[in-house]
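Lab manual, section 2.4: Encoding a predicted structure.

Procedure: take the sequence of the chain (501 residues), apply the prediction step described in section 2.3, and record the output as structure tokens. A sample record is shown.
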Amino acid sequence: MPIDKALFSRLTLLLIGIGFAALLAAGAGLVWQVETTRNYASAVSSAQEVRVTTLRALSLLQDAEIGQRGFLLTGEESYLAPYHAAVEALPQAMARLAKLVLEDGGRPGPIAELRELATAKLAELARTIALQRAGERDQALAITRSADGRSSMDTLREMVAGVEARSAMRLAARSAGLEANGRALLIGAALAFVLMLAVTVGSAILAVRYTRELEQAQAEVTAANAGLEARVAERTAALAAVNEEVQRFAYIVSHDLRAPLVNVMGFTAELEAAVAPLSALLAAAEAEAPGLVTAEARAAVAEDLPEAIGFIRSSTERMDRLINAILRLSREGRRALRPEPVALDRLFEGIAASLRHQLDAAGASLEIAPGLPTIRSDRLALEQLFGNLIDNAVKYLDPARPGRITILARRLAGRVRIEVADNGRGIDPRDHARVFELFRRSGRQDQPGEGIGLAHVRALARRLGGEVTLESAPGAGSRFQVILPLEPPPMPTPSPEESPR
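Recorded output:
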């Protein structure tokens, strides 16, 4: 039947409302999924912290046992250094583990049981050490060799494995929830698409039927097409803007984290400044009326408050370093590469000059093989790549022997292989892959760093059209091989998704 103007208007408004509702639902679903993904990323970080702290606690217990056994076997007090260090650091590690497990959604019971067993183990070690010092070496060794002495450590390992397993299970459950949310969002988006398609088809049918009944059909169709093209252009521009925002997501998140962090650091400084007058006030009160000042108040002002402030400051400083590193990597990933001829011998001489102070302080030598080739590449990227490798080599030299770092290069077919080798501590083969991952480190954590350098090295090598590999073993040093083209590949400016994060 014919469609009058009022009915056509009502139907059009209805269809537009349905389409807008579907589009709004799809947008809300996208925001919901982004927030869910961020929460999942936080859960992954929390689970990783639980794992690292759990392994740290177990490592401290093992260090304590190693020190005790060395002392029982030799009777020399120097062997107790790992034991004393572990006894001092273990309470803080256990407290942090309990806090992380609770924040991760775990139960406090297993952690309390683990703490009790760890305390009992340290008491057993202290008892054997006391017997050794008293000349009862045989009795101390008998306790160490007993089934109880062995089983307690095995039980600790099992409990540590249980804590890790439960954390992994919680993470797996969150991962399953994330996948379910993704499927739900996909189904919802498909339904929204079908609904919008139906709205579009219905609108087109109504428009065609209505325009056939009008005297100026051709003029109205032309106007409708013009309006449709304008809406398509607007939506295309809007989608392009949204896509650009999504591409800058990692950069924006890292940048916006700085504002609350700066506030926390500022208030921490104010708390630090307040400690001195508070201490003076407490001292004056104690001098005037000793009975008014309790031991708890003295401990809170003299010990607890400075300790808490120190912990907050160290944590915020570490977070500030991480955010700065992420921003630096993001900016570097956005920078357009500028290939130019680079003489590798002069490049490494410049890097050596910039690191001369660190080399001299470590008592290390840097040997650059003669005849290094010239390649066409981005000079700044090369300086950052090899500067990171040499800086790492200096930091992780073995103090037991003079440090030696060598730079070699060999031409291949259209490529060059550059080796940075050292005689430092070395890296366990099991960690060869993980050291190139962001925020991952290997071996003793006795050097400053956030686990970003080697991840940046690999990202730079790949942007330059090459690759980096590692050969290393504990005590045998490390050899990093960087293979780069002699001539640069096409180097488009990367999008944020391609930038290292």
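Check your result against the sample. The chain has three domains: 1-213, 253-334, 339-485.
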